[in-house]
Amino acid sequence: MADDGCVRAGQTAQAVRAAVEGEMRLLDPEVRADPARVLELLHPEFTEFGVSGRRWGVESILAVTSGGAVSVESPVEVSDVCGVVLASGVVHLTYLADNQGRRAWRSSLWRLAETGWQLYFHQGTLTEHGG
What we know:
Layout: H1 13-27, H2 29-32, H3 35-41, E1 42-49, E2 55-56, H4 58-65, E3 77-87, E4 90-99, E5 102-113, E6 116-126
Parallel strand pairs: 1-6
Antiparallel strand pairs: 1-2, 3-4, 4-5, 5-6
């Protein structure tokens, strides 16, 4: 969960928690295996710049999430989660993800929609370092 030091004064911890929960659901192998559940969490205009340098959209990311790259046997390890409310209905998350030794800093923008919090933008940057 987000470190309280990352939630700036006057901002709502509830929004940050909701975005973190959405992010963790997207990393859950069971959610990833179900395109309908992934779609609930993605904004229709979702874009990602992956660690590979590739640009992903909703359709292309659905192929990846359902491909089994994350499994119950090899879950993504997440640390250093930080969330900040940028504006009403917009949360920025950062965290370090370790997927079987491949470490990347992750940055996500979550937007509040009528159906709940949705991932609008995501970017990953490979790193050998943590913290």
